[in-house]
Amino acid sequence: MEGLDRSGKTTQTQKLCEHLQRTNTVKLIKFPDRTTPIGKMIDAYLRSQSELDDRAIHLLFSANRWECAGTIEAELRAGNTVICDRYAFSGVAFSASKSSLSYEWCKAPDISLPAPDAVVFLDISPEVAQQRGGYGEERYEKEEMQRTVRQIFRKIETDTAQANGHIIWATIDASGTLDEVQQRIQKAVEPLNGGITGEIQRLW
Ligand code: T5A
Ligand code: NA
C-alpha cells in the first residue's frame, strides 16, 4: 500500500487486513517501522528532532526494510499474505523528490528486496490531503514536496509496468469515502485471491 501523506493508507491497510483475514493468514508490516534502533533514528528525523544528510536518511529507510526482509520472505514461504503499509516505492518517490538525489541513485539500495505481487497506490491531491487530520506535523507534509512526490509515483508506475510486468499496479482515487475507497482496493487485489505460487520475485 503506497500513497501520498494523509491519503488514508494506514486506515485502509487495516481494513484490507481484516477483509483478507477471513480467508488468509495475514501479516501486516508498516514502513518505516519506527520501533527498531534504525526506525527510531528515522522517527526523530521525520519529527524534525534531528538533522541528517539526504543520502544518510535515504539509506536508513532502505536499511529499515532490509532488517525486515527475512521476516517477509519467511511469511511468504509459509504461504501467508503480507501487506506492507508503505514500501520501497515510497522510498524512491520521497527521496528522489529532493533535488540532491537522482531517481536511479535512490533505487539502488532496495535492489533485490522481495517484490510485491501488487502495489495499491492511494492517489490524492495535496489540497484534499491537507484538509485531513494531522496534516503538516511531519517533515515531508508540505504541498510543494507532495506535488513532486506524486509526479515521481507516476514515473515509478510507468517504469514498473515496463520492467516488472508481474506486478499489478492499481492507482486508486483516495478522495472518496472510507467505504468507497475500500471497495476499490478490494476489487484491485481480487486477482490475487487464489494465491501466488513460484519463486519470490525481486525488485526492481
Ligand atoms: N517515507 C517513508 C520516506 O521518505 N521513505 C520511505 O522509505 C518510507 C517508507 C512517514 C513519512 O516517511 C516517508 C513518507 C512519509 O512522509 P508514514 O509513517 O507512513 O510515513 O506516515 P504518513 O504517510 O504521513 O501517514 P499518515 O498517517 O499521514 O497518512 P495515512 O496513513 O495515509 O493516512 P491515515 O489512514 O492515517 O489517515 C489520515 C487522516 O485522514 C482521515 C483519517 O481518519 C485520519 O484522520 N481519512 C479520511 N478522511 C476522509 N475521507 C477518507 N476517505 C479518509 N481516509 C482517511
Ligand atoms: Na500512516
What report would you give on this structure?
This is Thymidylate kinase. Pfam families: Thymidylate_kin. GO terms for molecular function: ATP binding; dTMP kinase activity; nucleoside diphosphate kinase activity. Its EC number is 2.7.4.9. The chain has 8 helices and 5 strands; from the N terminus they run E-H-E-H-H-E-H-H-E-H-H-E-H. It has 204 residues and is mostly helical. Strands 1-4-5 form a 3-stranded parallel β-sheet, sandwiched between helices. The site of sodium ion has 2 residues, from helix 1.
CATH topology assignment = Rossmann fold
Rg on CA atoms, Å = 16 Å
Which class best fits the helix and strand makeup?
Answer: mainly alpha
CATH-derived architecture: 3-Layer(aba) Sandwich
Mean pLDDT value: 96
Low-confidence sequence ranges: none
What binds here, in terms of ligands, is: P1-(5'-adenosyl)P5-(5'-thymidyl)pentaphosphate, sodium ion
> How many separate helices?
8
> How many DSSP-defined strands?
5
- CATH-assigned homologous superfamily: P-loop containing nucleotide triphosphate hydrolases
Largest sheet: 3 strands, parallel
Name the overall outline: globular
Order of helices and strands: EHEHHEHHEHHEH
CATH class: Alpha Beta
Give the N-terminus to C-terminus distance in angstroms.
17 Å
Helicity, as a percent range: 40-55%
Q: How is the largest sheet built, in terms of strand order?
A: 1-4-5
Count of structural domains: 1
Sheet-strand content, in percent, reads 5-15%
